[in-house]
């Protein structure tokens, strides 16, 4: 499991929350990307309306510590994993994303 400190280091933020807002801290969307990457930027924009429902962890595969990600995904970016499980690549499939996010939210609600 990724710690809050690691998430902060990867994404530069844990989120800006409004009073009374519910945030499911254990939903993490990892975006495997490079810099520059217009498709990655486009995908991030598509996900903007959902940003308060998950923590975004950006993984830059050009960094030496991410070489395993580079070897696996160098031709497929952007790639997304939701809570550590592969979700989609190349472009955001919004229906698939919404379905999986809702499924995890319902599962988490049932565990509280």
Automatic annotation (TrEMBL):
KW Transferase (keyword) present: no
Sorted UniProt keywords: Electron transport, Transport
InterPro entries hit by this protein: Glutaredoxin-like, Glutaredoxin-like_YDR286C, Thioredoxin-like_sf
Pfam families documented for this protein: Glrx-like
Family (UniProt): Belongs to the glutaredoxin family.
Annotated protein name in UniProt: Glutaredoxin-like protein
């Amino acid at each position: 499991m990724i710690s809050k400190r690691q998430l902060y280091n990867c994404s530069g933020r844990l989120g800006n929350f409004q009073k009374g807002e519910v945030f499911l801290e254990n939903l993490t969307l990892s975006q495997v990307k490079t810099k520059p990457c217009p498709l990655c930027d486009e995908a991030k924009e598509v996900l903007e309306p959902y940003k308060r429902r998950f923590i975004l962890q950006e993984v830059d595969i050009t960094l030496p510590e991410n070489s395993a990600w580079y070897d696996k995904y160098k031709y497929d970016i952007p790639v997304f994993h939701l809570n550590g499980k592969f979700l989609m690549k190349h472009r955001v499939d919004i229906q698939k994303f919404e379905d999986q996010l809702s499924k995890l939210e319902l599962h988490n609600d049932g565990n509280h």
